[in-house]
Specification:
It is a single chain. The chain is α+β, with helices and mostly antiparallel strands and 143 residues long. The chain is 17% helix and 27% strand. It is built from 3 helices and 9 strands. The strands form 4 sheets. Strands 4-5-8 form a 3-stranded antiparallel sheet, with no helix packed on it. Strand 1 and strand 2 form a beta hairpin.
Length: 143
C-alpha cells in the first residue's frame, strides 16, 4: 500500500489479566466484551465491518476495572443475524460502504451490531477519543 506505520496498537479482549486494583489487591480481571483502558493506554474500539472505529486512550477508571468496551457489541444474536440476512445482503452492504471483506460471514453483517457512536458516547468517562476511521479492508477469521 506504500504506507508507513506511525504506531502499533494491540487490541486484546476476552482475555484474563493479573492486575492490581486501586485498593492494592491483586486480582484476575477477565474482560469479556471489554478491553484494557488504563490511564494513557492506547486502544482501538471498532464498530462493525462498515461502521467507524475509534482510536482511544484510556482514562484509567478504577470503578470500571480500568476497562472500556471492545466494540459496538451485538444488537442481535448470531442465529437472528443468520435468519435475517443473505450473503447477497451482506455483499450489497459492503459494496455500498466501499469495504472489501476477506473471510467473514452473514452473522457479522453491520445491522447485527449496536450503533458504535452511541456506544462511544456512553463511555466518555472511560476513554478519550483521539481518532475516528472508516474501514476499507476487513479481515475476518470466520468463513
Amino acid at each position: 500500500m506504500g504506507l508507513r506505520s506511525i504506531a502499533n496498537v494491540s487490541h486484546h479482549h476476552n482475555f484474563a489479566w493479573k492486575e492490581t486494583l486501586s485498593d492494592g489487591r491483586e486480582v484476575m480481571v477477565h474482560r469479556k466484551g471489554a478491553t484494557p483502558a488504563h490511564a494513557g493506554e492506547a486502544g482501538i474500539i471498532p464498530g462493525s465491518m462498515t461502521a467507524a472505529g475509534y482510536l482511544v486512550c484510556g482514562k484509567g477508571q478504577p470503578e470500571a476495572l480500568y476497562s472500556a468496551s471492545h466494540g459496538a457489541g451485538r444488537a442481535m444474536s448470531w442465529q437472528k443475524a443468520r435468519d435475517s440476512f443473505t450473503r447477497s445482503d451482506l455483499n450489497r452492504m459492503l459494496a455500498s460502504a466501499g469495504v472489501t471483506l476477506i473471510g467473514g460471514s452473514i452473522e457479522e453483517a453491520s445491522p447485527a451490531y449496536r450503533n458504535i457512536d452511541r456506544v462511544m458516547e456512553a463511555q466518555t468517562a472511560l476513554v478519550d477519543v483521539h481518532g475516528r476511521f472508516m474501514p476499507r479492508i476487513v479481515r475476518m477469521n470466520k468463513e
